[in-house]
Specification:
The chain is mainly beta. The chain has one domain: Porin (Beta Barrel). 7% of the residues lie in helices and 53% in strands. It has three helices and 18 strands. It has a 16-stranded antiparallel beta barrel. A hairpin with a 6-residue loop joins strand 12 and strand 13. The chain starts with a helix and ends in a 7-residue tail after the last strand.
Length: 402
């Protein structure tokens, strides 16, 4: 039952994500192309009032994969996939950076015949934690990722390692998975050592309610270590900008929920999608304060969290309207006695952002989008933002997940 509506949603999302409809059948279609090849072209125009490199208040030890002003071609994506033999399938996704150069976004092998509901993936892949993390940028419903993804995951967690999923043989959709990896993606430090540097466990549950409603809920846990992570330009209690280093343990727990509705099950005409995710990260270890000056080391721990709630409404074929609210909590840091008079422990500020978008897909191969946002993620630096985006698809592309 759940699989039926997922299939209908996947085909409809092909149309709404600017992808060719004939790509809905993954395995057979890829074999026909041998291999399947796709190219996603995207670009943006952005107007911002503030420097996009400034991180959210209280998240200075985290990256800020923010926006760019003016015209930018964005990140183009080239994908190659095919069945290797009756046992394996291979996928590679190459990111063509706006500055030039090519990086490997995904490059993994996936089993096709393990049986018993088991699926093994190994190589480089986006982690299965949460809901948005596995989605490529061209499938996002907004120009950017929510603040919690940008701040806690550097937009999304990618890993070099192995992933095992198990799909339960039941009418209710139950998926359980686990991953072991190098710790390549933020917040990991990608340190060279034997064994695993990071681990993830997750579970997803979902079902249909008649032909018009479907839902999916999930929980995940991520564990990694951070080694000599540098934060530059952090303001201390005296107002001085200093450089600090943190080494310690990082553990993040998350919850996600998605609900979809389409009248009479006709998702090609109209549908509503509501989704929300929450993550909480606890980090504990040692902080070296002002490495270029006093270089005082002592204990440090903090719990930071964030969530977003968003909804997208396709009110007529090819037209969608969406709204999203983001909020972060920088937490109250617990610092050792040597640093207590230097390190800010409570910023007394919750970063927020509100976004509204409208997009139009002239055909199944293209999407045009405008988005406005009121960004109050940096204390005293409100930023009213405006974006225009295009996403164009060439070639065959597999259907997106639920």
């Amino acid at each position: 039952m759940f699989n039926n509506i997922v299939s209908r949603m996947a085909i409809a999302m092909l149309l709404s994500h600017g992808l060719p409809a004939h790509a809905a059948g993954n395995g057979n279609n890829e074999a026909a192309f041998n291999p399947a090849f796709s190219l996603i072209l995207s670009g943006t125009y952005g107007e911002l009032q503030r420097d996009a490199a400034i991180p959210a208040t209280g998240f200075a030890m985290n990256p800020n994969p923010g926006h760019r002003q003016g015209f930018n071609i964005g990140e183009s994506e080239m994908g190659i996939s095919a069945n290797i033999d009756p046992e394996y399938r291979g996928v590679a996704t190459l990111a063509l950076a706006a500055e030039g150069g090519v990086s490997v976004e995904n490059a993994f092998v996936q089993t096709t015949a393990l049986g018993e509901g088991l699926n093994l993936k190994f190589g480089r892949f986006f982690s299965g934690l949460g809901y948005l993390n596995e989605q490529h940028a061209h499938a996002w419903d907004f120009v950017d990722q929510p603040l919690v993804y940008a701040s806690l995951w550097n937009n999304q967690l990618g890993e070099d390692g192995v992933q095992l999923k198990w799909l339960a043989p039941s009418d209710l959709f139950i998926e359980v998975g686990g991953e072991l990896g190098k710790g390549r993606g933020f917040p990991g430090s990608n340190t060279a050592k034997n064994g695993s540097g990071a681990g993830v466990v997750f579970v997803h549950v979902g079902d249909d309610i008649g032909v018009e409603h479907s839902w999916r809920a999930g929980a995940s846990l991520h564990q990694t270590n951070r080694t000599a992570v540098e934060s530059t330009g952090v303001t201390d209690l005296a107002g001085n900008k200093v450089t600090d280093l943190f080494t310690g343990n990082s553990q993040t727990a998350g919850l996600d929920f998605v609900w979809k509705y389409s009248p009479n099950g006709n998702v090609a005409n109209r549908y509503v999608k509501l989704q929300a995710e929450y993550f909480s990260r606890k980090e504990s270890g040692n902080l070296s304060y002002d490495t270029a000056g006093v270089n005082v080391a002592d204990t440090f721990s903090n719990t930071q969290s964030g969530f977003y709630v968003q909804s997208v409404y396709q009110f007529m074929p090819r037209w969608r309207l969406g709204a999203r609210y983001d909020r972060l909590d920088s937490g109250v840091a617990q610092v050792g006695v040597l640093n207590v008079a230097k390190v800010i422990s409570d910023y007394a500020f919750n970063p927020t952002r509100s976004s509204v978008m409208l997009d139009y897909s002239p055909s199944e191969f293209s999407r045009l989008r405008v988005q406005v946002a009121n960004d109050q993620s940096r204390k005293g630096l409100q930023d009213n933002q405006f974006f225009v985006q295009y996403i164009m698809s060439l070639g065959a592309h597999g259907a997106h997940s639920y």
